[in-house]
Structures are given as structure tokens and as C-alpha cells.
Amino acid sequence: MWPPQPKGFAEGSPSTWSFVTSEGSEFDATFVATAKGSFYVVDSRDPDGIQHELLFVGLGVTKGKGPIPFGIGGSFSTPDMWSAGLTKILRLQAKPTLELSDLGGVGVIYSGAIGGGFLPELVNPDKGILEGCGAEVVCFGGLVAFNAAGVIVSKQYTPPGVGGTILPCIFTIDPGGKSGGATAAVTAALTGVGRGKQLPRQLKEHQKELREPSPIPRPPAT
User: Fold this and answer.
1) In Å, how far are 45, 133, 189, 217 from 193, measured between CA atoms?
2) What integer is the mean pLDDT of 71-93?
3) Which residues are CB-neighbours of 85 under 8 A, at least 6 positions away?
4) What is the dihedral of CA 8, 94, 112, 16, to 10 degrees?
5) Number of Cα atoms under 13 Å in the Cβ half of residue 117
6) Does residue 38 contact residue 150 with C-beta atoms inside 8 Å?
7) CA–CA separation, 134 vs 114, rounded Å?
8) Contact between 58 and 35 (Cβ < 8 Å)
9) What are phi and psi of 154, to 5 degrees?
10) pLDDT 10s digits, 118-150
């Protein structure tokens, strides 16, 4: 079965994680590809639906065919462009659950893209010459045997042609000190950020006390 899996684990099982969207840029020259981007994932077990960023950087090999000489090519996409995970991220290890930490570290992205306006109406309604579509098999937690894998397709800006890339990479979970998991849930509950929640009355009163200076005690009257 592909992607490769640990010995004794016959087939992948759908996890509670799924892709929300993605962004990235790739540059190709001859047979070398370099890329940087992010996948955004969410766990269905999380009642707050917090999205986590999986930042990746990688260097790999590519093969393509198009009108630009010397194999020059690449792609670019942003989080607001059309993107969709085809299935739940598959758990490829003999563990009862897939955790966020299992998606970090080394991994491999197998991708293919086509550009030049030869695309379905959903992906490229304006038939732009630099608009294309890509599909990526994203494998987490190894270079040969993986913890998990998922498939995501997306609209991309890419020159006319067709190509494929194998990209070993490193995934960083929630980079830049971003809050995630239980920490973000607690922060959101206390501050109401992003969900219109109101601060509890006791917390508001406590904050008011902290802002207002305490009265200076006066000596008792004699």
C-alpha cells in the first residue's frame, strides 16, 4: 500500500484531523524544486474548531513540461484561494488516536500541478493563463514510513504546463509563538476573541479593581 506504512499495520484509518486550506510558493529550475508554505488543519474533537498551522520548508526534485526553457516553473497560492481536503487525514500508525504532535517534524509532499487554463470551471472560472490546479499527497512524520497522510487539492497561480514534485520537508506546528490547543481555547474563553464571548461578571469586576487605584487609608479619628 502507498504511502508506505509501518510493518504490521495493514491499512490507514481516518483520523479526526482534516485540511481546511493551504498556501505556499514553489520555484523549479531544471530538476530542483524548493518550496515554503503552510497547511491549516482542524481536529473534529475540538469544540472550538481551532485551526492549527503546519508550516513547511523543503528541497526536492521535480519534472515538468511547458513552454518555458530550462525547466523553469513554480506555483503560488494564498489561503483565501479555493482549496479542499479530499478525505480526513489518515492515521498510518498503530496508535488509537492521531495527535497534533504527530504532524510535526520531517515529512514528504508528493505534488502535481497543471496550468494554462485547461481546468474545470470550479477551479478556474475566468480561464486565466496563469491559473492552474494542484494536488498534493502530504505525508507526516517520516521520510519512508509515515505517521499520517492526507490529500488536498487547490487552485494555484502557475505557468502553462504540467509537472510533478517530490519534496522532503520539515513541518513546524503553529510557528511564531501562536497559541493552539487548550491554551488558545482558554484565551478565547477569557477574552472573547473571535467568538463574541463576553467576560464573566466577576472577571470584569476584578479587572476594574486592578485598573482603579486603591484608596489611601486614613488614620482613625481621635
Assistant:
1) 21, 35, 8, 38
2) 89
3) 18, 19, 20, 150, 151, 152
4) 150
5) 4
6) no
7) 7
8) yes
9) -155, 155
10) 555 555 555 556 678 889 999 999 998 899 999
Please tell me the total number of residues recorded for the chain in this structure: 222
User: What DSSP assignment string belongs to the chain?
Assistant: --S---TT--S-EE-SEEEEEEEEEEEEETTEEEEEEEEEEEETT-TT--EEEEEEEEEEEEEEESSSGGG-EEEEE-TTS-EEESSPPEE-SSSSS--GGGG-EEEEEEEEEEESS-S-TTT-TT--TTEEEEEEEEEES-SSS-SEEEEEEEEEE--SEEEEEEEEEEEEESTTT---HHHHHHHHHHH-TTT-PPPPHHHHHHHHHHHSPPPPP-PPP-
CA distance 21 to 105: 20
For residue 90, what is its C-alpha cell? 489518515
pLDDT of residue 151 exceeding 90: yes
Locate cell 489561503: which residue? 79
Amino acid (one-letter) located at 83: S
* Phi, psi at 57, each rounded to 5°: -135, 140
Tens of pLDDT, residue by residue over 192-208, are 333 333 334 443 443 44
Q: Compute the radius of gyration of the chain from its Cα atoms.
A: 24
First CA to last CA distance, the chain: 92
**In angstroms, rounded to a whole number, what is the distance separating the alpha carbons of residues 190 and 153?**
36
